[in-house]
Amino acid sequence: EPFFSTKGEKGTGLGLSTVYGIVRQHGGIVNVESEIGVGSTFRVFLPLSEKNISPSPETEKLIISGGTDTLLVVEDSDEVREIAVTALKRFGYTVLEASCGSDALTIIREKGTAVDLMLTDVIMPGISLEELHREALALVPGLKVLYMSGYSDNNIKRNGQTGKAVPFISKPFSLSDLASSVKAVLEEAL
Q1: pLDDT of 101-150, one tens digit each?
Q2: Is 165 helix (H, G, I), strand (E, B) or coil?
Q3: How far apart are CA 72 and CA 98, in angstroms?
Q4: How far, in Å, CA of 88 to CA of 66, rounded?
Q5: Can you tell me the distance from the alpha carbon of 56 to that of 18, in angstroms, rounded to the nearest whole number?
Q6: What DSSP state is assigned to residue 161?
Q7: How far apart are CA 44 and CA 42, in angstroms?
């Protein structure tokens, strides 16, 4: 198999195949050099664009119309968590972060109703998603939750991770998709 995971249950192991697919869709190539005992070097080559690209009005609207809510990002991957936290702060949100479910519950206990939305990865070490969701809602009734995962929405539902349709964003996501998903969940009626 050309793509596999060395992370076990922690991740999908599809990061390289996702990058390769995105690069190829944009007319680029990925060059890989690997040497035993030295390591691997990946070079991504993308075609030069002659166009002057500026943000679309939709993206600018999202940037301008961010929020003032407090969000809790729960993600065990430091890199993904950092990207999400940085982006959401740029959109005007107050952002708290946790690397696992038990840390998220500790933050919710400390902040209480000050947390408006929890953006959480579906598959993480430690407590289960169901336990995190149940305990978070017990602490903050009406807490809004947005799930994210590298697995498909249907795969999550099939595996019993959620009992009903839930707000979901698939990784990898664009920053505008993240902002619009967060905004949509925050604005939905309870």
Answers
A1: 999 999 999 987 889 999 999 988 889 889 999 999 999 999 999 999 88
A2: coil
A3: 7
A4: 8
A5: 24
A6: S
A7: 7
Residues 6+ apart with CB under 8 A from 15: none
Contact 132, 109 (CB under 8 A): no
pLDDT in tens, 40-79: 888 999 988 777 766 666 655 555 456 789 999 999 999 8
DSSP string, 101-160: HHHHHHHHHHHGGG--EEEEESS-SSS-HHHHHHHHHHHSTT-EEEEEESS-HHHHHHTT
- 91 Cβ contact partners less than 8 Å away, ≥ 6 residues apart: 62, 63, 66, 67, 179, 182
